[in-house]
């Protein structure tokens, strides 16, 4: 940082009584250096370019979706082979319901209408699977009913979220 020098009082006395407008502006500052600093635009920051580690850009949401599908496929294969313990088989839909519920709450807080629809559909699907895993009702009967009810609730909430917004935006 640059240090500023104080002007002595003698130089302030040397200013004539009548000044033109430009000189009055200059005299308002302690020195002309202050005026030059105020007028001069700040030097642009020098951008430090780092070389990328990879020669391409990663789409992180798509990468997470692919990883989730791989994990789901491995789980279903193990489930079909009977290699998964019964406790996990009984409660695994909660692993889908909890993130769907969190997604729903975040979408409501952010007032994101599309995410509300997606999260309610996923929440309805996971609750149907949870009821089927607990052997409360077969998956075929709960899948349609609960998923449609949850999605309908999402559509109503979406309508409430978009109520005061213009159609184009």
First-to-last CA distance: 47 Å
> pLDDT average, as an integer?
80
H-E string:
HHHHHHHH
Count every helix, treating DSSP H or I runs of 4 or more residues as helices: 8
Give Rg in angstroms: 33 Å
- Total beta-strand segments: 0
How many strands, what sense, and barrel or not for the largest sheet? none
As residue ranges, the low-confidence spans are: none
Helix fraction by DSSP (H/I, runs of at least 4): 55-70%
Q: Which structural class should the secondary elements be placed in?
A: mainly alpha
Please describe what this structure looks like.
By secondary structure, the protein is mainly α. It has a domain at about 105-160. Helices cover about 65% and strands about 0% of the residues. It contains 8 helices and no strands. It has helices at about 10-15, 20-30, 30-40, 60-80, 85-90, 95-110, 115-135, 140-160. α6 (about 95-110) runs antiparallel to α7 and α7 (about 115-135) packs antiparallel against α8 (about 140-160).
